[in-house]
UniProtKB/TrEMBL annotation:
Keywords in alphabetical order: FAD, Flavoprotein, Oxidoreductase
One Pfam family from the record: Acyl-CoA_dh_M
Similarity comment: family membership: Belongs to the acyl-CoA dehydrogenase family.
Domain Acyl-CoA oxidase/dehydrogenase middle: 125-222
Domain Acyl-CoA dehydrogenase/oxidase C-terminal: 253-397
Key word Protein transport present: no
GO terms, molecular function: acyl-CoA dehydrogenase activity; flavin adenine dinucleotide binding
Domain of life: Bacteria
Record organism: Mycobacterium yunnanensis
Reported cofactor(s): FAD
Record-annotated Acyl-CoA dehydrogenase/oxidase N-terminal domain positions: 10-114
InterPro entries recorded: Acyl-CoA_DH_CS, Acyl-CoA_Oxase/DH_mid-dom, Acyl-CoA_Oxase/DH_mid-dom_sf, AcylCo_DH-like_C, AcylCo_DH/oxidase_C, AcylCoA_DH/ox_N, AcylCoA_DH/ox_N_sf, AcylCoA_DH/oxidase_NM_dom_sf
The protein, known as: Acyl-CoA dehydrogenase family protein
Length: 403
């Protein structure tokens, strides 16, 4: 399929539907749930009722041929509010991990359990980071060992920074099976609900995205059936055999998930940036100082021009990466990382400038740009810091093993 910036009628229809939900349901609740720092279950329930939080929406938008469907959904939801949006859509990261390499049987059994039902919505969590392994996923020390006698995996370790960690129905956990192989010896596992030995550790109090639950999870001699290694044990054993022979492989567990979701994270950041820009623009057209609208001063107008330029530039990169991922075009120049880097740093820049335009008002919680500014920062950190994105890009561009 040829890359086009013209959205199909179907994508536009879904985008506008999501925007309406974000405007009427999410935004009015944003300040309350940010202050409460709790999972907004009533809003998740509303999203499930209208079909926005469902396996069907994720599946249809992920399969949308241009690759832009899911990106527009995420941008509109995060335009509403980042914390609430991540609570509603955070399950998508775990779902993406399962979809990347899961067997048809695993998809059929576990995707519905990630989302639950309209009456009883559930969540899922992707658990990769550890206290000593954030950006360096090769340093993961959570260990999975196969017990042949019982056909079970035994997993021990601690995961941190897990969105929905501990409150999710299904957890997807990255663990090392063959530590001597580094990241190539890792696998991803499905942890069913109420599994003995699996528990929530510390819940984090965060700078931003406060309505989204983030916590540690602890695995203490967790035993799961052998069939719950994502992709199946036979394929994993084949991959390990190739690694031992020094042959190329399709990549390790955590990075495969991040590669699929980086354009989506870029779309999240775009939503926050656009929301702050639009608020600052409206404010500049109404607020008067020295007898003139402040938007009539070049100092403010030029800020708005730069904000809009960066947002549109970032969106073009995000859409290109989304189209490439959906149409199996290789990221030769790390286009996924490029999109995530540009969009995340745009969100930080734009929300900072929005506060500057509002002046003292922008620094108070009476105006939403203060919350947007706090929310924006996480995008330069999670799913690969800006520094890691630059490293990935530099390696791709130069062909050299930069450190």
């Amino acid at each position: 399929m040829t890359f086009s910036l013209e959205l199909s009628d179907d994508v536009i229809e879904v985008r506008d539907w999501v925007h309406d939900f974000a405007e009427k349901v999410v935004r009015p609740a944003a300040a309350e749930w940010d202050e409460r720092e709790e999972t907004p279950w009533p809003i998740i329930q509303e999203a499930a009722k209208v079909g926005l939080y469902s396996v069907e929406l994720f599946a249809t938008q992920a399969a949308e041929p241009t690759g832009l469907g899911l990106l527009t959904v995420f941008e509109e939801m995060f335009w509403g509010d980042a914390g609430i949006a991540l609570s509603i859509l955070g399950t998508g990261l775990a779902a993406a991990s399962l979809a990347a390499t899961g067997t048809p049987e695993q998809l059929g059994e576990w995707l519905p359990q990630m989302f639950g039902t309209v009456e009883d919505p559930l969540l899922a969590s992707f658990c990769a980071s550890e206290p000593g392994a954030g950006s360096d996923v090769s340093a993961i020390i959570t260990r999975a060992r196969y017990d042949e006698a019982s056909d079970e995996w035994i997993i021990n370790g601690t995961k941190t920074w897990a969105t929905n960690g501990g409150i999710a129905n299904v957890h997807i956990v990255v663990a090392s099976v063959h530590p001597e192989l580094g990241s190539r010896g890792q696998a991803t596992f499905i942890i069913p609900p109420d599994t003995p030995g699996f528990s929530q550790g510390q819940k984090f109090k965060k700078h931003g995205i406060r309505a989204s639950h983030t916590a540690e999870v602890v695995l203490d001699d967790v035993r799961i059936p052998g069939r719950l290694i994502i992709g199946g044990k036979e394929k994993f054993d084949e991959r390990i055999a190739r690694a031992r022979e020094g042959k190329s492989s399709a990549g390790q567990a955590a990075m495969k998930t991040f590669e699929r979701t980086r354009p989506t994270v870029g779309a999240m950041a775009l939503g926050v940036a656009r929301a702050a820009y639009e608020y600052a623009l409206d404010y500049a057209q109404e607020r008067e100082q020295f007898g003139r609208k402040i938007g009539d001063f070049q100092a403010v107008a030029f800020k708005l021009a730069d904000m809009r330029t960066r947002i549109d530039t970032a969106r073009l990169l995000v859409w290109r990466a989304g189209w490439m991922a959906r149409n199996d075009k290789p990221f030769v120049n790390a286009e996924g990382s490029m999109a995530k880097l540009a969009a995340s740093e745009t969100a930080v820049y734009v929300t900072d400038e929005a506060i500057q335009i509002l002046g003292g008002n922008g620094y108070t919680r009476d105006y939403p740009v203060e919350r947007m500014h706090r929310d924006a920062k996480i995008f330069t950190i999670f799913e690969g810091t800006s520094e890691i994105q630059r490293l990935v890009m530099a390696r791709a561009i130069t062909g050299l093993p930069l450190k």
